[in-house]
Write a structure and sequence with these properties.
Layout: E1 2-7, E2 10-13, E3 18-26, E4 33-39, E5 46-52, E6 58-60, E7 68-73, E8 78-83, E9 92-99, E10 108-109, E11 113-118
Parallel strand pairs: 2-11
Antiparallel strand pairs: 1-3, 3-8, 4-5, 4-9, 5-6, 7-8, 9-10, 9-11
């Protein structure tokens, strides 16, 4: 079984930056895609960004394009989310996820890390 553990969350002021990390442990881990999602209080979980692990291509939600960057270090089984120019509306619990297929639901999820942007 794969375990995904996020870190790097915290409190930051508007305009600041944070880098989240998600490290996988457990069985041999060769995901096809890894993603970041977030859930704000009272709202549904939403997609933030994803990366295709074999080719490195990435996709982003419109709300974070140009501000967030997803990347992966396969040797460390770690995916990152660099978040710049943070806004109060970015406040949420951020979770990483992985899936073994090109499409479909994500198989494995982390517990999440809190990001709070204060104005």
């Amino acid at each position: 079984q794969v375990q995904l553990v996020e870190s790097g969350g915290g409190m930051v002021q508007v305009g600041g930056s944070l880098r989240l990390s998600c490290t996988a442990t457990g069985r041999t881990f060769r995901p096809n895609r890894m993603g970041w999602f977030r859930q704000a209080p009272g709202k549904e979980r939403e997609f933030v960004a994803a990366i295709a692990c074999s080719v490195g291509s990435s996709v982003y939600a419109d709300s974070v394009k140009g501000r967030f960057t997803i990347s992966r270090d396969s040797a460390k089984n770690t995916v990152y989310l660099q978040m710049n120019s943070l806004k109060p509306e970015d406040t949420a619990v951020y979770s990483c996820a992985a899936r073994s297929r090109v499409a479909g639901p994500y198989d494995d999820w982390g517990q999440g890390t809190q990001v709070t942007v204060s104005s």
